[in-house]
Design goal:
The protein has helices at about 15-25, 30-40, 45-65, 70-105, and strands at about 1-5, 5. With about 120 residues, the protein is mainly alpha-helical. The longest helix has about 35 residues, at about 70-105. The N and C termini lie far apart (about 60 Å).
Protein backbone atom coordinates (compact mmCIF):
# COMPACT_ATOMS: atom_id res chain seq x y z
CA UNK A 1 0.00 0.00 0.00
CA UNK A 2 1.07 3.54 -0.58
CA UNK A 3 0.69 6.57 1.61
CA UNK A 4 1.69 9.94 0.17
CA UNK A 5 3.48 8.15 -2.65
CA UNK A 6 5.64 6.11 -0.29
CA UNK A 7 5.39 2.38 0.33
CA UNK A 8 4.70 1.16 3.81
CA UNK A 9 7.37 -1.22 5.08
CA UNK A 10 6.35 -4.87 5.12
CA UNK A 11 4.93 -6.11 8.38
CA UNK A 12 6.89 -9.02 9.82
CA UNK A 13 4.91 -11.20 12.19
CA UNK A 14 6.66 -12.77 15.15
CA UNK A 15 6.36 -16.55 15.60
CA UNK A 16 3.93 -15.92 18.46
CA UNK A 17 1.78 -13.67 16.25
CA UNK A 18 1.81 -16.29 13.51
CA UNK A 19 0.57 -18.88 15.99
CA UNK A 20 -2.17 -16.52 17.20
CA UNK A 21 -3.26 -15.81 13.61
CA UNK A 22 -3.34 -19.54 12.88
CA UNK A 23 -5.43 -20.29 15.97
CA UNK A 24 -7.87 -17.45 15.33
CA UNK A 25 -8.44 -18.37 11.68
CA UNK A 26 -8.56 -22.12 12.29
CA UNK A 27 -11.03 -21.79 15.15
CA UNK A 28 -13.08 -19.49 12.90
CA UNK A 29 -12.97 -16.63 15.40
CA UNK A 30 -12.09 -14.38 12.45
CA UNK A 31 -12.00 -14.78 8.67
CA UNK A 32 -8.72 -14.79 6.75
CA UNK A 33 -9.49 -11.29 5.44
CA UNK A 34 -10.27 -9.96 8.92
CA UNK A 35 -7.09 -11.52 10.34
CA UNK A 36 -5.05 -9.94 7.53
CA UNK A 37 -6.50 -6.51 8.34
CA UNK A 38 -6.05 -7.01 12.09
CA UNK A 39 -2.36 -7.92 11.77
CA UNK A 40 -1.60 -5.54 8.87
CA UNK A 41 -0.58 -8.19 6.33
CA UNK A 42 -1.87 -9.44 3.00
CA UNK A 43 -4.38 -12.31 2.88
CA UNK A 44 -1.77 -14.40 1.03
CA UNK A 45 0.37 -14.29 4.20
CA UNK A 46 -2.50 -15.79 6.20
CA UNK A 47 -3.05 -18.50 3.59
CA UNK A 48 0.67 -19.31 3.57
CA UNK A 49 0.73 -19.54 7.39
CA UNK A 50 -2.07 -22.10 7.32
CA UNK A 51 -0.29 -24.12 4.63
CA UNK A 52 3.01 -24.07 6.54
CA UNK A 53 1.30 -25.14 9.77
CA UNK A 54 -0.50 -27.99 8.00
CA UNK A 55 2.68 -29.21 6.27
CA UNK A 56 4.68 -29.06 9.51
CA UNK A 57 1.98 -30.90 11.44
CA UNK A 58 1.72 -33.65 8.82
CA UNK A 59 5.50 -34.02 8.74
CA UNK A 60 5.61 -34.21 12.53
CA UNK A 61 2.87 -36.84 12.61
CA UNK A 62 4.61 -38.81 9.87
CA UNK A 63 7.98 -38.70 11.58
CA UNK A 64 6.62 -39.49 15.03
CA UNK A 65 6.94 -43.04 16.25
CA UNK A 66 4.65 -44.31 19.01
CA UNK A 67 6.29 -43.54 22.33
CA UNK A 68 9.02 -41.40 20.75
CA UNK A 69 8.91 -37.73 19.84
CA UNK A 70 10.43 -36.51 16.60
CA UNK A 71 13.14 -33.88 16.78
CA UNK A 72 12.90 -30.66 14.81
CA UNK A 73 15.72 -31.97 12.61
CA UNK A 74 13.81 -35.18 11.81
CA UNK A 75 10.73 -33.18 10.88
CA UNK A 76 12.78 -30.89 8.64
CA UNK A 77 14.46 -33.86 6.95
CA UNK A 78 11.05 -35.41 6.28
CA UNK A 79 9.75 -32.15 4.77
CA UNK A 80 12.83 -31.87 2.58
CA UNK A 81 12.45 -35.48 1.42
CA UNK A 82 8.85 -34.81 0.45
CA UNK A 83 9.85 -31.68 -1.46
CA UNK A 84 12.69 -33.60 -3.15
CA UNK A 85 10.24 -36.31 -4.27
CA UNK A 86 7.83 -33.70 -5.61
CA UNK A 87 10.59 -31.88 -7.52
CA UNK A 88 11.99 -35.15 -8.89
CA UNK A 89 8.58 -36.05 -10.30
CA UNK A 90 8.23 -32.60 -11.86
CA UNK A 91 11.68 -32.91 -13.42
CA UNK A 92 10.82 -36.32 -14.89
CA UNK A 93 7.64 -34.94 -16.43
CA UNK A 94 9.52 -32.00 -17.93
CA UNK A 95 12.20 -34.30 -19.35
CA UNK A 96 9.53 -36.44 -21.04
CA UNK A 97 7.84 -33.35 -22.49
CA UNK A 98 11.17 -32.06 -23.80
CA UNK A 99 12.00 -35.43 -25.37
CA UNK A 100 8.61 -35.55 -27.07
CA UNK A 101 8.95 -31.95 -28.25
CA UNK A 102 12.42 -32.56 -29.72
CA UNK A 103 11.20 -35.74 -31.38
CA UNK A 104 8.44 -33.83 -33.18
CA UNK A 105 10.95 -31.26 -34.43
CA UNK A 106 13.27 -33.90 -35.89
CA UNK A 107 10.60 -35.98 -37.61
CA UNK A 108 10.37 -33.60 -40.54
CA UNK A 109 6.61 -33.51 -40.14
CA UNK A 110 4.96 -30.44 -38.81
CA UNK A 111 1.29 -29.84 -38.23
CA UNK A 112 1.77 -26.57 -40.12
CA UNK A 113 3.35 -28.08 -43.24
CA UNK A 114 1.08 -29.37 -45.98
CA UNK A 115 1.68 -32.76 -47.49
CA UNK A 116 0.10 -33.71 -50.74
Amino acid sequence: MMENGKRKPRRQLTPEEKWEVFLEVTSQEVSQADAARKYGVDVSVIIRLRTLAKDAAIAAFTAAKPGRTATAEQVEVELLREENDRLSEALKEMAIELTLHRGKQRSGFSARSRRA
